[in-house]
């Protein structure tokens, strides 16, 4: 069995143009945002469902988010699993979570966007056409045991908001996590840095959320935040929440 795990619905249509063998699961979580500390997966899913309920249609998590994740974890031993994830923190946290739960699987592969030129390293899948996605798949990396274990450690540190451990892990060498130093730095500062960036933009005269969101994405592209994450910060700073 082959299973392609896509980092979001936006990748689904261009991925289908590749006509690759295998089944598809879409990872629709946003684990860079909200509570994570829960002792088992059932409680974890319940915690996340409650957090995302205000942002999603009622029942969406149980119908479209949790089942896709469970399909990944329930895939048979020996299945080849291809993890299609971007390099910025938003996607990397989701990848860390998967590696934590798949740490004993041998047939894992990472498929990511191009790492060069460096200035586009956090631009993700959006600029790529089907031919470029095919090249990304050809350049896939098998995820070695040490990388699975590092991903698991990164997840545990992030879930616990252990900034010291995140920075320590970020200083290690890794062939898989290509931009780990700056991503782990962003992870260690996630409770303060995004808020400070939005506050600075507001202080400099950014009056609309749209303008603030676009500016934030430029100056803090390493976070990979969507509008929901930045809007939550914006609302708290402007008294709307």
Brief account:
It is globular, with a radius of gyration of 18 Å. It has 241 residues and is α/β, with parallel strands linked by helices.
Description of the structure:
- The structure is a single chain.
- Strand 3, helix 4 and strand 4 form a beta-alpha-beta unit.
- The mean pLDDT is 95.
- The relative contact order is 0.12.
- This protein has a five-stranded mixed β-sheet with strand order 2-1-3-4-5, with helices on one face.
- The protein has eleven helices and five strands; from the N terminus they run βαβααβαβαβαααααα.
- The longest helix has 15 residues, at 145-159.
- By secondary structure, it is of the alpha/beta class.
- It has two domains: 2-179, Dna Topoisomerase Vi A Subunit, Chain: A, domain 2; 193-238.
- Helix 10 packs across helix 11.
**Mean pLDDT across all residues, rounded?**
95
What name is given to the CATH topology of the largest domain? Dna Topoisomerase Vi A Subunit, Chain: A, domain 2
What is the CATH domain class of the largest domain? Alpha Beta
Outline the biggest β-sheet: 5 strands, mixed
Strand content: 5-15%
Report the span from N to C terminus: 46 Å
Order of helices and strands: EHEHHEHEHEHHHHHH
- Helicity, in percent? 40-55%
Write out key terms for the chains shown:
5 strands; 2 domains; 8% strand; alpha/beta; 49% helix; 241 residues; Dna Topoisomerase Vi A Subunit, Chain: A, domain 2
Outline the fold blueprint.
Blueprint: E1 2-6, H1 12-16, E2 23-26, H2 41-52, H3 60-73, E3 80-84, H4 89-101, E4 108-111, H5 130-138, E5 141-142, H6 145-159, H7 163-170, H8 180-188, H9 193-203, H10 209-219, H11 227-238
Parallel strand pairs: 1-2, 1-3, 3-4
Antiparallel strand pairs: 4-5
